[in-house]
Amino acid sequence: MKKTITIPADLLERVKTIPGASGMTDSQLVSLLLKAGLSAAKKEEATTARSTLQKILSELSDEALVYVWRPIMYAYLWTDGHGHDRITDDDMCRIHLSGMIANGSPAAVERLDKWCLAVERNMGKEALA
Asked: What pLDDT is attached to residue 125?
């Protein structure tokens, strides 16, 4: 189903001032406008998330801080590239599991959880230690 979007002419004229917009068709300009809006929303979302997390981290108990320390350090060292050389093979296994848990589909996370529970039941906790 096709939908029609109406963009005010003055807004479309303002979009034409974005670097690289000259010579674009109206539909290309609308696409550029939407991309710029999404980019701005992501930046605002990241700023809000950072502020919220800083507040939460400052209020965490010592026990909770120990629990989240490793995934936070992995994000800093690996994802943001502040210390790839400090990552061990064990760390890489943990990063992959953390990534699956954080970003995997619900079905994939459920399979991983069931697999871990099955291994633990059948082989004892030593198998996962």
From this structure: 58
* Residue 111 near residue 101 (C-beta atoms within 8 A): no
Using an 8 Å Cβ cutoff, are 38 and 61 in contact?
A: no
Q: What is the DSSP letter of 112?
A: H
User: What's the pTM value of the predicted model, to 2 decimals?
Assistant: 0.54
Per-residue confidence (pLDDT) for residue 127, from 0 to 100: 54
Confidence grade of residue 102 (pLDDT, cut at 50, 70, 90)? confident
> Assign residue 119 a region: left if phi > 0, alpha if psi is -120 to 50, beta otherwise?
alpha
Which segments of 22-105 does DSSP mark as H helices, in order? 26-59, 62-74, 89-103
Residues 6+ apart with CB under 8 A from 119: 127, 128
| Chain-centre distance for alpha carbon 19 | 28
